[in-house]
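User: When convenient, might I ask for sequence and structure tokens for a protein?

AI:
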Amino acid sequence: MIAISKPDFPAGRDKAMCLLVGPDASNTRENAVVVKVQKVLALVGYAPIKKIKKVTTVHLDPVKRSDRAGNDVLAVHFYPDDHVEFEFRNDFSGSRFEYGKVDEWFQTKYGKAANPDDLDWAAAYRRTTRVAVQGWMKYRFTDTVDLEQYVYYTLLVNPKFDEHPAVQRIVMESKGKPGAFDLAMQKMPADVVREIKSNKFDHLANGSKVGQADSI
């Protein structure tokens, strides 16, 4: 059984997905399952319908599985940079990103400020998702609360907030610690937040890349 974990792509929810999984005999690894994954995305609600096809090969090293038929689920996780990971699970949870929760928090907490141009819910959701995707692409944030802070600061404080030296220190110190970025940003001194919002600070050269996780 295959469960698709699709950390909603920047296009948002208005799409259909077809997942094709099959063996890739041209590329094998000892004692490993090697499959070729083809992603077909169809953006719906727009004319004409646009289909995007992408193919990638994924290696799944040996893992311990249940002996009972139907107990294991092969979860297929799609990431914003288009790499794919497999995982055997015994349930249908385990989504890598909870963009829906991030958007719900953002829209509920900040109301009109979160959607000042009165976009419809789908467009507002896509905007939140695109920003959250940046948080993963730059710093590999996956924890929901870390992504919430990244979205808040990007959309409501300063899109270049992460070029501030204080933020870069937080990024470095919280690397590999889910939830640590959120906690540190919530404790940011008010005068520093005002400085970030005013954009009157020494921007670190290529600041958005400092502390960035290695590409997967």
Remarks:
- The radius of gyration is 20 Å.
